[in-house]
Amino acid sequence: MKTLKTFPIFIFLIFLVVGCAKTNQADTSSGELSFMVFGDPAEIKAYQELATTFEAKYPDAKVELINIPGQSDYRTRLAADFAAGTPADVVLLNYRRLGTYAARGALEPLDDYLAKSKIISRQDFYPQALEPFAYQGKLMCIPQNLSSLVVYYNKDLFDQAGLSYPQNDWTWQDFLQTAQALTRDLDGDGQTDQHGLGFESVLARFAPFIWQHGGEVTNNDLNPTKLALDWPLSLQAISWVVDLQTKYKVVPNVEEEASEDSESRFMNGRLGMYLNSRRSVPTFREITAFDWDVAPLPRDQHIASVLHSDGFCMPSSVENKDLVWKFIEFANSPEGQRIVAKSGRTVPSLKSVAESKEFLDPTQKPSNNRAAFLDMADFIRALPISPTWIDAEEAVDQELTRAFYGEISVEEAIQAANNLAQPFLADTDAP
Q1: CA triplet 210, 216, 220: central angle to 5 degrees?
Q2: 394 lies in the same domain as 258
Q3: What one-character DSSP code corresponds to residue 278?
Q4: Mean pLDDT of 35-64
Q5: How far from 73 is each of 70, 92, 168, 365, CA to CA, in Å?
Q6: Which one-letter DSSP state was computed for residue 124?
Q7: Which of 178, 400, 185, 373 shows the shortest CA–CA distance to 277?
Q8: Are residues 365 and 405 in the same domain?
Q9: Which partner for 403 in 22, 142, 232, 413 could form a disulfide, CB atoms 3.0-4.6 Å apart?
Q10: How far apart, in whole angstroms, are the C-alpha atoms of residue 139 and residue 103?
Q11: For 77-97, how does the pLDDT look when each residue is reduced to its tens digit (9 = 90+)?
């Protein structure tokens, strides 16, 4: 009889536990989360659509989109928010800045979440995109894109100059001759009105040229302890790039660049070629005054490009981690990546989306995107992600810019870069 009396209570407890479990499971798809992004209006529109579609899929969830328009302002805000312990629940982070936050334990590892996902898996992604987001053997972010550095070119200016469009196997010499032919004094006043090339004088732009010539950026990609910019082949490549501005004058000088940056010059039809990643596409699709396309970087001894990739990251301070993961998971599902890819902003990191008809739509510019982006996947290299790498990189950027605009020699710039960067390269932990 005693058993019979306690049995209903036992059953009640079972129902109570099950009910709580169901309630907890439901809670993982409900609540509010914040998502901080940067980008041009077309990019922000895509992220807003991503958030809205997620909310439609999970009606009890609400996404607050925090838009910081400029990359520099975004990085400043991101650093301040992490320092204050109040980062957004989901942040976009470039892989080169990963080590800064991962080394402090500020990011939540995502390996277990990805392993349990029934929507995405490691095998779905290009390894060239996924691997740079690992720190000390743990996956810290899910990459949204896999972009190489490419050459955007004004087809109308090529036509006016009687030039053939760039081919996939064009060389450094072809590149230089093309830039020279596109650099013109249009009104005969002795001043250049149209430049052949726009080039941002930072290490991330120099790197592929260094690698193509057989040089290296550092002595070790995974755990850099010294720069390798003074190695003979590295030095030769840097000098060749600097000559584009100082010797051949095919790139706007420092005053011209300050008065109108190269991206604006390209959009205004006064620049023949412009180097950038995929992120310029949404903005350039607004151009109506001329036709444009993209081409892979010219090649030297080797084929190489540099990785441009941002990842969706979860700060370790997040409270509702399951909900945040659901958003990251959705954003990097085929459905989510198609939404952002429609803007032209990204080369999807998911193989299935990047190689789909939707992404390779020939009616959308750039029409040559397969040759310029996807075919370069096997030749993309990543820069280091050690905890203080970005500090070293910024020091190098400063000196390379001085050399690029003729303020100091290449040799002086590299020596100064070595001196400034070395404190950030010594005693760093391997990622």
Answers
A1: 155
A2: yes
A3: G
A4: 93
A5: 5, 13, 36, 29
A6: G
A7: 373
A8: no
A9: 413
A10: 13
A11: 999 999 999 999 999 999 999
Average pLDDT over residues 13-20: 38
Weakest-pLDDT range from 11-20, 146-155, 235-244, 403-412: 11-20
Question: What mean pLDDT is predicted for residues 353-371?
Answer: 80
The answer on 297 and 317 residing in a single domain is no
Full domain range(s) for residue 210: 150-307+382-425
Average pLDDT, the chain: 90
Q: Is residue 86 part of a domain?
A: yes
Report yes or no: 117 and 329 within 8 Å, Cβ to Cβ: yes
Beta-sheet pairing, 31-37 with 61-67: parallel
pLDDT by residue (tens digit) across 314-339? 999 999 999 999 999 999 999 999 99
C-alpha dihedral over 173, 178, 179, 180, to 10 degrees?
Answer: 90
Say how far apart CA 231 and CA 369 lie, in whole Å. Answer: 34
Exposure string over 172-199, b if 16+ CB within 10 A, otherwise e? beebbbbbbbbbbeeeeeeebebbbbbb
pLDDT surpasses 90 at 359: no
* Helices vs. strands in the chain: H and E counts, helices first: 19, 13
DSSP per position, 358-387: TTT-TTSS-TTHHHHTGGGGGGEEPPP--T
d(CA 218, CA 213) in angstroms, rounded, equals: 14
Residue 182 is assigned to a structural domain of this protein: yes
Tokens of 283: 């903005």
Helix axes 334-342, 41-57, angle to 10 degrees: 150
